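Appendix B, Record 12. Input sequence as logged:
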Amino acid sequence: MFARVLFMLFDVCVALRAVVWNLFYPSRKKRQIYVDYGEVEISAIIANALNAKTEVILPDRARVDILTHSEAIKVDWAHKWAEGIGQALYYGAITKKTPVVLLLMNTADEERYLARVRQVISTYSNTKLKLWLFNLHTGELDMGKKGVYQIS
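Logged structural output:
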């Protein structure tokens, strides 16, 4: 009886260790999902998941990265946040759709760019600009109030 309880306790400890290990040290394969992809490739993958069009050419030859039925989305690297805002607003104005800047997040230190974008959005809330985030390591697309989706 004592041996059975001891083995059950051991199994629980092993399972707990595995859970804690995965929280703090996620597998390398899981963390490297989209790190080596370029902006255009990632845009195409996200557009496919959203059932949207990519590289839509506007009358003035500007190209919208992703165009859904309700959003004009500019996909850009986090450090290019300011450029992304300007282009998203322009795409939204021309297409008459909600402008979205979708930032590609690669490292934790890029959080400072999010703070800047959020400040612009809160200061100029009349623009209807939305911020979406794509984590290159996990493949998660955070669409704000629309939710978080796993892109595979």
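Strands lie at 53-57, 63-67, 71-77, 98-105, 130-135, 140-142, 148-150.
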